[in-house]
Amino acid sequence: MKKLLKSTAFVFWGVSFLTSFSAVANDDFNAWKKEFEKEALSAGIKQATLSKYLPQMELLPRVIEQDVKKPEFLQNFWDYTKARLTPEKISKGREMMAQYPTWLKRVQEQYGVDPQYLVALWGMETNYGGYLGKTKLLNSLASLAYHPRRRPYFTKELIAYFKILETEKYPPVWGSWDGGFGNFQFMPTTFVAYAIDADKNGTKSLIGSMPDSFASAANFLRSMGWKVGQPWGKQVIVPKDFDWENLHDKKQIVADWIQEGVKPLKEDFSKDEKEIVARLITPQGADGPFFLVYPNFEYLRRWNGLELYGLTTGILADTLAEKGDIPHRPENFEPIRTETIITMQEILARNGYDIGGSDGKLGPKTRAALREFQKKNSLNQDGYPNRDTLVKLNSYQKELNK
Question: What residues does each domain of the chain span?
Answer without folding.
Answer: 6-72+133-181, 338-401
